[in-house]
Amino acid sequence: MSQLIEDTILELLSQVRDGESISPNDVAKTIDRENWQRELPKIRAVIIGLARQDKLQVLRKGKPIEPEGFKGVYRVRLPVAE
Questions:
Q1: Could you give the CA distance from residue 82 to residue 70 in angstroms, rounded to a whole number?
Q2: Fewest CB within 10 A of the end CB: N or C in the chain?
Q3: Which of 80, 70, 66 is nearest to 21 (CA)?
Q4: 63: which strand partners?
Q5: What is the CA radius of gyration of the chain?
Q6: pLDDT by residue (tens digit) across 24-59?
Q7: Collapsing DSSP states into helix, strand and coil, what is residue 55?
Q8: Which SS3 state, helix, strand or coil, does residue 67 take?
């Protein structure tokens, strides 16, 4: 399942312009349109793993944050040079 989630995240990110982000809800709804809320904890775990590997960035209020212990609404994007 985590490979499906990772593939879905990277596929959705490949469809947005450089620097733009996606919501974990977008990923969940792509994987399971009807029960997407159930997927969110698994998606978060995969996102944290990808962020630790520097494959993506976790954003809060449009700013990159550390993938450890964040709370609330967040989005993800591919890494950008700052």
A1: 21
A2: C
A3: 80
A4: 60
A5: 12
A6: 999 999 999 999 999 999 999 999 999 999 999 999
A7: coil
A8: coil
